[in-house]
UniProtKB/TrEMBL annotation:
Name of this chain's protein: Lysozyme
Enzyme Commission number: 3.2.1.17
Superkingdom: Bacteria
Family annotation (PROSITE patterns): PROKAR_LIPOPROTEIN (PS51257)
Gene3D superfamilies assigned to the protein according to its UniProt record, in alphabetical order: 1.10.530.40
């Protein structure tokens, strides 16, 4: 989960990450929900990018593994 959060913060910038639903859900202890929220960040230039969809999907799977542990 931490890896996914750091990756997202690095990619979208810390101000965007700090305002994100993912961060609020992590702070509230809703880890599985925060992993799903990660997949919402799949756009570049206002368009959905297949590479980002795939990347966020892999990050979500890792995040959910961590949440289950």
């Amino acid at each position: 989960m931490r890896g996914a959060a750091v990756s997202l913060a690095y990619n979208v910038g810390w101000p965007t990450y700090c305002r994100s639903t993912m961060r609020r859900q992590i702070n509230a202890g809703q880890i599985a929900a925060s992993c799903t929220s990660l997949t919402w960040f799949n756009k570049a230039g206002g368009r959905v990018v297949a590479g980002l969809v795939n990347r966020r999907s892999r990050e979500k799977a890792l995040c959910l593994k961590d949440a289950a542990a």
